[in-house]
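Obj.: predict assembly geometry.
Materials: sequence records (below).
Method: joint structure prediction, all chains together.
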Amino acid sequence: MASIFSRIVAGEIPSYKVAEDDKFFAFLDINPLAKGHTLVIPKREVDYFFDLTDEEIGAMQIFAKKVATAIKEAFPCVKVGQAVLGLEVPHAHIHLVPMQSEKDMLFTNPKLKLTAEEFAEIAQKINSCLPQ
Ligand code: AMP
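Observations (raw structure tokens):
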């Protein structure tokens, strides 16, 4: 059975899409640590990030760099932090989180509760900051 993230890529489960190319997909984390918290995934379903090929990790990091640059423009912050956990969803993903301080990367922090309209607005704002 396809992972929840593969089902998002296929459009079977809704998401707040931020960016997409032929190999990668970026969408908002539904339990964000901060406004702009985004997940970057490969369309090829692989559970463990470090089981991706060297080429995939390289290309995924370049894709994530573009998304992180757009996040920083849309949501001014000190830096965009990056984390790979993968303990919950068995489909490799990079978390990109706008940080005002180190504490913003604590995954044990309470998550923001946002409305559907707020999520849609955030995704649109980041998308509009991507190079066209
Ligand atoms: P982890 O696997 O530990 O890196 O955590 C998985 C992340 O995916 C969590 O931050 C969840 O909030 C997020 N997540 C799970 N399901 C969805 C979904 N349907 N849409 C967006 N984010 C999700």
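Conclusions so far: The chain has a mean pLDDT of 97.
To do: check interface contacts against the pulldown list.
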